């Protein structure tokens, strides 16, 4: 990760200073911006490896910045904001953000989320297997094993787990999962999604509680292993 450039857009000087230090200590170079216009200019002239965007900016909306960047770039985008409402999270994620971190934030958590997002960009789309903490998905054979024992999933359960695992660490909204797994006509059927998540967890999770599929209440799920 050393030397990667991270665009940081926030209009609070103390937040910018803190992020510069956090990123420097983690081996990154911070590229600061205080406005939406400045962020888009810097992203276009010398594209960074990732971006951390505030939602509320003096000349616009961080969601719009995210949407504009997504028109031409796959760079990881983390939204960092004091706005913690579910609707704000969903808007940012559906505009193309990879994750959402609420202020006040922990430095270690922020760096971990950033590193996870950067790893996802570097992974090939045709990865034959996905392994995480005792769980193994064979994407070609469409089989799942936990601690070496095969777990029998329905086709929908496998597709749901595969979608989450391919986006490891990323917070996937209810709508994104429903459209990806079931199709656009199911985009608002959260009850269907919750039922299948519950069935999936019964089959793959250890008795002590969720290890692989984590919930962000009211927003969605992430494959956290």
Give me a quick take on this structure.
This protein has helices spanning 13-25, 36-45, 62-70, 86-94, 107-122, 155-166, 174-181, 190-204, and strands at 5-9, 29-33, 50-53, 56-57, 60-61, 77-81, 99-102, 129-132, 135-138, 143-146, 149-151, 172-173, 213-216, 220-223.
Structure description:
By secondary structure, the protein is an alpha/beta fold. The chain has two domains: 5-122, Response regulator (Rossmann fold, 3-Layer(aba) Sandwich), CATH 3.40.50.2300; 129-223, Winged helix-like DNA-binding domain superfamily/Winged helix DNA-binding domain (Arc Repressor Mutant, subunit A). 41% of the residues lie in helices and 23% in strands. The chain contains eight helices and 14 strands. A five-stranded parallel β-sheet has the order 2-1-3-6-7, with helices on both faces. The protein has a four-stranded antiparallel β-sheet with strand order 8-9-10-11, covered by helices on one side. Strands 12-14-13 form a three-stranded antiparallel β-sheet. It is globular.
Key terms for this structure?
8 helices; 23% strand; 4-stranded antiparallel sheet; alpha/beta; Rossmann fold; 5-stranded parallel sheet; 225 residues; 14 strands; Arc Repressor Mutant, subunit A
């Amino acid at each position: 990760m050393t030397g990667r450039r991270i665009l940081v857009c926030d209009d609070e000087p103390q937040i910018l200073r803190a992020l510069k230090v956090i990123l420097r200590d983690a081996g990154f170079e911070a590229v600061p911006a205080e406005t939406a216009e400045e962020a888009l200019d810097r992203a276009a002239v010398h594209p960074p490896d990732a971006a951390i965007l505030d939602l509320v900016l003096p000349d616009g909306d961080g969601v719009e910045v995210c949407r504009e960047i997504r028109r031409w770039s796959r760079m990881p985008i983390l939204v960092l904001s004091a706005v913690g409402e579910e609707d704000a999270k969903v808007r940012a994620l559906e505009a193309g953000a990879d994750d959402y971190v609420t202020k006040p934030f922990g430095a270690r958590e922020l760096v971990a989320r950033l590193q996870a997002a950067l790893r996802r960009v570097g992974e090939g789309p045709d990865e034959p297997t996905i392994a995480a903490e005792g769980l193994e998905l064979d994407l070609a054979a469409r089989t799942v094993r936990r601690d070496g024992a095969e777990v029998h999933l329905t086709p929908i359960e496998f597709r749901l787990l595969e979608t989450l695992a391919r986006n490891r660490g990323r917070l996937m909204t209810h709508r994104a999962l429903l459209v990806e797994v079931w199709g656009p006509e199911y985009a608002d059927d959260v009850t269907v999604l919750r039922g299948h998540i519950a069935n999936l967890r019964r089959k793959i999770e250890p008795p002590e509680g969720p290890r692989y599929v984590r919930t962000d209440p009211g927003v969605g799920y992430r494959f956290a292993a």
